[in-house]
Design brief:
- The protein is built from eleven helices and ten strands.
- It is α/β, with parallel strands linked by helices and 281 residues long.
- It has an eight-stranded parallel sheet with strand order 3-4-5-6-7-8-9-10.
- The protein is globular.
Length: 281
C-alpha cells in the first residue's frame, strides 16, 4: 500500500475506508469487507455512532494491530481538557483499542483550544500516534499552528473534482499538514458518476469514474477514504494503484473546480449554530 509520511514520521496509508453515514448495523460487515480486500486505514468518528461496529470488524479481521491505521474524531460537545480525555477514552473503549493512529477535532467550533491541549497530552503519552483536525479553513488552521506546540498532522476537509482545495493544500504543505479528503465523490452531486468530462477518462483506462476520481486525488498526494456498503464497489475503489493519469488528464479534471462546496460552508454562521448545537451520545 502506498503511504504518506506525516509531520511526526508516522506512515499513513494514502487509501482508506470511510464509514460516514453507514448505519451501525451495516458498518461491521462493510468494514470487514474492506479489511479483507486490503484496506488498512479505517476512518470513523464518535458522531457517526458506529465506532463499536468498527471495533468488532477490527477484532474479527485477525490482522495484527500494527498493520492497521485507525482514525476517529472528537465532537464539538466535548470541549474542555477533561471532557476531551473522557471522550477519547470512550472512543477507545468502543473501538476495543489501546491507542488510535489518528485523533481529529471533528469541527472548528467551540473551545477547540482546550481540546487541542488535551490531545497534545494524549499524543505525548502515545495513546494517539498522531493528532489533527477536520473541516478547518486556512485561517483557523494557521492560528492553531502558531499558538500551539504540536502542529496538526492532518486536516480532513471536503475535497473532490468540484471543490479541489488547491490553495488549501499549498498552505498545508507549507506548514507540514497532510490533506485528507472527505466526500471524494461529492456524494454523486453534479452527476459526478456520469459526468461528461470524467467518463471519457474512465473509458480510456477501462475503469470506473469513481476509480478515476480516487486516482486523481492520490496523484495529488491527497489521502482518500471512499465509502460503500457494496462489496464489489469496496473492492473496485481499492483497485486504483495499478494505473496512472497523464498530465493532460490531471489538468482536464482540474478544470472542473468551482472553488465552492457542494454541501455547505463551515464559515456560514447558520452552520456554526447547527453543527455546534448537535449532541452525540
Amino acid at each position: 500500500m502506498q503511504t504518506v509520511t506525516l509531520n511526526n514520521g508516522v506512515d499513513m496509508p494514502i487509501l482508506g475506508f470511510g464509514v460516514y453515514q453507514i448505519p451501525a448495523d451495516q458498518t461491521e460487515k462493510a468494514a470487514a469487507d474492506a479489511l479483507s480486500v486490503g484496506y488498512r486505514l479505517i476512518d470513523t468518528a464518535a458522531a457517526y455512532g458506529n465506532e463499536e461496529a468498527v471495533g468488532r470488524a477490527l477484532a474479527g479481521s485477525g490482522l495484527p494491530r500494527e498493520e492497521l491505521f485507525v482514525t476517529t474524531k472528537l465532537w464539538v460537545q466535548d470541549a474542555g481538557e477533561q471532557h476531551t480525555i473522557d471522550a477519547f477514552n470512550t472512543s477507545l473503549e468502543r473501538l476495543g483499542l489501546d491507542y488510535v493512529d489518528l485523533y481529529l477535532i471533528h469541527q472548528p467550533y467551540g473551545d477547540y483550544y482546550s481540546e487541542w491541549r488535551a490531545m497534545q497530552g494524549l499524543y505525548k503519552e502515545g495513546r494517539a500516534r498522531a493528532i489533527g483536525v477536520s473541516n478547518f479553513h486556512a485561517d483557523r488552521l494557521v492560528d492553531l499552528i502558531i499558538n500551539n506546540e504540536v502542529t496538526p498532522a492532518v486536516n480532513q476537509i471536503e475535497t473532490h473534482p468540484f471543490y479541489q482545495r488547491t490553495e488549501d493544500q499549498r498552505l498545508m504543505k507549507e506548514h507540514g499538514v497532510q490533506l485528507m479528503s472527505w466526500g471524494p465523490f461529492a456524494e454523486g452531486r453534479n452527476e459526478l458518476f456520469t459526468h461528461p468530462a470524467l467518463t471519457p477518462v474512465a473509458e480510456a483506462h477501462g475503469v470506473s469514474v469513481a476509480q478515476i476520481v480516487l486516482r486523481w486525488l492520490i496523484q495529488r498526494d491527497v489521502v482518500v477514504i471512499p465509502k460503500s456498503v457494496n462489496p464489489d464497489r469496496i473492492a473496485q475503489n481499492f483497485d486504483v494503484l495499478g494505473f496512472t493519469l497523464t498530465e493532460d488528464e490531471m489538468a482536464h479534471i482540474a478544470a472542473l473546480d468551482t472553488g465552492a462546496s457542494v454541501f455547505f460552508d463551515h464559515r456560514d454562521p447558520g452552520m456554526t449554530v447547527r453543527l455546534g448545537s448537535v449532541r452525540v451520545s
